[in-house]
Amino acid sequence: MPYLHDSLLIVSDLDGTLLDHNTYRWEAASGWLGVFKQRHIPLVLCSSKSAAEIMEWQKELGIPGQPFIAENGAVVQLDERWSSSDYFPRRIAGIRHDELMNWLNDLRSQYGFKFTCFADVDENTLSGWTGLTHKQATLARFREASESFIWRDTPEMFNAFAERIADLGLMLVQGGRFWHIMHAQSDKGQALRWLYEQYRQNDGKTYITIGLGDGPNDAQLLDNVDYAVVVKGYSRKPVILRNDNPERVYHSLSYGPEGWKEGLDHFIPAE
To answer: Pfam families of this UniProt entry (predicted)?
Structure first.
């Protein structure tokens, strides 16, 4: 069992986990956020959101300058203390967004696939889809190495689309609201392993890792931590983990930040 006096590293998804799925409120998590800040325990945000979005949420949550994982692992922001790194300020894995959109547009033209990307719509439309403010929707469109989309075709066409995507060395990830597409080597798990190694090299110590997520796209994250909290979510697909041992994995009864708090309460005893 992890304790607050251990070297802890917390890795958390945002939407539906630390943030409420519908309101984006996070106050139920404020107690643990205060503890982490007081004890200098790193909180790595790991999300499908863009880097621009996550940096705004870091300010909101009071953790600016810490590392984070954006776009489902395609982008890794380094700690502001690690400016001497060859990858500073961020590492981008795989394909760049412009090239990715060229491929997606070619697939639409060639096969007639029907889907709508963030890049296809304006901020007002995206706000309507997500409930984000105009400013937040603007930041959500600043993708660097992935794209988010709504599928508008048949299941049979989706299967054909998935085959074409795999042929290009890309992969599809299902989030709480949207599908995401990126390079096949750009998942949350590989990004977390890479970032953990940066922590180990720069801080000269190992950490006990606790991960929290609510959707199928968080499985890679939760498979690569010592302790995992599966926050109750709204996805119709379950979060399937390689090792779902109850000594390592806790499934919350509550949604969103209430479930986030519940999971941490379960694993970290009060002092």
So the answer is: Hydrolase_3, S6PP
